[in-house]
Amino acid sequence: MTGLPTEPAWVQGAQAGSARDFGQLVRLHQQALRAFLRRLSGNHADADDLAQETFVFAWEHIARFDAGRSLKPWLFGIAWRKYRERKRGWLRLFRRERRLAEETETIIRSDPGLKLDLAAALATLPAEQRAAILLCLMEQMTHEEAAAALALPLGTVKSHISRGREKLGLALGGLNV
Amino acid sequence: MSEAEKLMADVPARDPLFVLGVMTRIEQRRFRRELARTGGLTAIAIILLALVMPKLDFTWLGNLSPANELAIGAALMALSIMGSRLSRTLKN
């Protein structure tokens, strides 16, 4: 009796052109990827659209993927790039996020007892910090995997996580994150 | 429930519609790409034929007198009429 096919087998199948195997990979990763993009973009419809684009891109470029590695960081890296492409106009994004963070900080300062839930607290972080926190804390990726996915230096990712944790702790009313 | 699980809770673990959406997009892209490729080949064929056409035209006009051209045209018309009648007869 043969064992059930696993991710590496599906990756190899997809690389050989099997749409059925690629469908299995989509089924396996859709929940985590969509949750990541929903927390990142704050809009469910946009996030699902981005997730579909991510999977289509992955299908078209899966031949280049090193089958010996884990697929997840590669997929999340594509998702992150797609998210950034969609949010072109960096200045606009930067201003919007900065304004949002300032507003939240003002709310928290004016009412230190206020506790936001984790999702709302995450929304107050800048995009790169939010992505690093989501990958390492939610997806249990190592710092190295997150750095590869986000195409950032390892030190930058570590600093994003440390600062992000601090801000989240503040937003959650002093909780350890 | 952990915080990570809470964050993922609003996305279903199984979502056939989402998977179907992805596979549909993949097929649409493939179709569009093939259509573009076929369109490109057709355009190349049209250009090549357009380049050859004047030569054919020139040869045709140079070798045949107007009377012969008319005769050939009439013969072709007669053939097409006979062909359509024959196919109608075979159907009945």
Quick description:
The complex is a heterodimer of chains A (177) and B (92). Chain A has 177 residues and is mainly alpha-helical. Chain A has nine helices and no strands.
Assign an overall shape of chain B. elongated
CATH architecture label name of the largest domain in chain A: Orthogonal Bundle
Largest sheet of chain A: none
Q: Output the helix-strand order of chain A.
A: HHHHHHHHH
Order of helices and strands of chain B: HHH
Through-space gap between termini of chain B: 76 Å
The helix count of chain A comes to: 9
Total of domains of chain A: 2
Whole-Å distance between the termini of chain A?
45 Å
Which stretches of chain A of 5+ consecutive residues score pLDDT under 50?
Answer: none
Average of the residue pLDDT scores of chain B = 82
CATH topology of the largest domain in chain A: Arc Repressor Mutant, subunit A
Structural class of chain B: mainly alpha
Instruction: Tell me the overall shape of chain A.
Output: elongated
Radius of gyration of chain A: 18 Å
Give the averaged pLDDT of chain A, no decimals: 84
Oligomer: heterodimer
**Biggest interface, CB < 8 A:** A-B, 29 and 19 residues
Helix content, binned percent of chain A: over 70%
Main sheet record of chain B: none
Estimate nothing, just give the exact number of structural domains of chain B.
1
How would you describe this structure to a colleague?
The complex is a heterodimer of chains A (177) and B (92). Chain A is 74% helix and 0% strand. Chain A has 177 residues and is mostly helical. Chain A has two domains: 7-86, Orthogonal Bundle (Rna Polymerase Sigma Factor, Chain: A); 90-171, Orthogonal Bundle (Arc Repressor Mutant, subunit A). The longest helix of chain A has 23 residues, at 19-41. Chain A is elongated. The mean pLDDT of chain A is 84. With 92 residues, chain B is mostly helical. In chain B, 87% of the residues lie in helices and 0% in strands. Chain B is built from three helices and no strands. Chain B is elongated, with a radius of gyration of 30 Å. Chain B starts with a helix and ends with a helix. The mean pLDDT of chain B is 82. At the A-B interface, helix 2, helix 3, helix 6 and helix 7 of A face helix 1 and helix 2 of B.
